Amino acid sequence: MKRFPLCALIICSLLFVFTHDSDADSKSPKWAATSVEKAGPDFQIQGEYSGVLGEDSNEPLKYGVQVIALGDGAFQAVGYPGGLPGDGWDQKEKVSAKGEKTGNVISFTSEQGRGDLEDGKITIFDADGNQVGTIKKVHRKSPTLGKKAPANAKVLFDSNRAEETVKNFTNGKITNEGLLKEGVTSKQKFKDGHLHLEFQLPFMPQARGQGRSNSGCYVLGRYEVQILDSFGLEGKDNECGGIYKVGAPSVNMCFPPLAWQTYDIDFQAAKYDKEGNKTDKAKITVKHNGVTIHDNREIDGPTPGGTNKDETIAGPLFLQNHSNPVRFRNIWVIEK
Q: Where does the 3-keto-alpha-glucoside-1,2-lyase/3-keto-2-hydroxy-glucal hydratase domain start and stop, copy by copy (predicted)?
């Protein structure tokens, strides 16, 4: 069998029963689901798919697809030869195709093949109509998800002790489920250290761009690592994992909305001599869902929207409120 470049996919036919509830049918870009139970049927279709094409051929090909919900039964598909981002994709080639719905079928179309999605799997056919493989829906988890705080760590928030640890933040508020809400600033301040943060993006299929599950993780209150539903997007400096106005992530590791995600961040404050001259820029290393997306990156100065711009002082952890219900849990810092 010839090597099938599924990056040139796709007619992707999705067969499903429409059981929209009133919330999931909302036309408002501000509508957000914070739980799977309230997300509606489109949520069940969106997500990640992975598998191997041509397993019996001389050139088997690992392949990943991200299916993005756009609201009202509309979807976008992005295909990745070699595997999903962070799982084999070489970042050189991908395809994006918008779905067109006919009855209960949504088709993602390209010139060289099709994929039929049903019951959590996509059956792939090449341009000649030959079946070349099936990829199944997967639910990836960060290898550091649920990582326990070491003995020498300062626990800023623990959802198992929500009522107690929410007091570590100014303006701290929690949900009925014991999760930390956005728009909080830690009372403790830091200079150099390691931060572990777990966050969950709401499902906002009608929203676009910066209005889609937006928050921000401000290290030292002045350097923003963006939090945004960038699932399936390009991975820019204003998207998830980007350091705002500084640099894009090396790879877009954003998981689908409502999946718990992690940031593991090593940070070093800018250094100054006795005369007040800057001798070393602030530096940051970021792992998003276990994959390094910034490696000892230098930051010239504070990014917009933080709590302070003075690089000579210690600063807090600030989790931005952008009017979207982003949730947090398991937050701790090791000072260095």
A: 158-333
Contact 285, 292 (CB under 8 A): yes
Confidence of residue 14 (pLDDT cuts 50, 70, 90): very low
**Quick one: tokens of 85?**
């981002």
pLDDT at 102: 62
What type of residue is 104?
A: N
- The stretch 295-314 carries a mean pLDDT of 96
DSSP character string of 19-50: ---TTTT---TT--B-SHHHH-HHHHH-EEEE
Q: Are 124 and 96 within 8 A, CB to CB?
A: no
CA dist 251 and 83 (Å) reads 13
What CA–CA distance (Å, rounded) separates 299 from 241? 15
Q: For residue 13, name the pLDDT band (cuts at 50, 70, 90).
A: very low
Q: Report how far residue 156's alpha carbon sits from residue 180's, in angstroms, rounded to the nearest whole number.
A: 11
Domains of the chain as residue ranges with CATH: 6-138 (2.40.128), 154-335 (2.60.120.560)
Alpha carbon distance 96, 234 (integer Å): 11
pTM: 0.90
Given a cut of 50, whether residue 17 has pLDDT beyond it is: no
Please report where in the chains the tokens 């999946």 appear, as a residue. 259
Q: Which residues make Cβ contacts (< 8 Å) with residue 209, sequence separation at least 6?
A: none
**100 sits in which H/E element:** strand 95-102
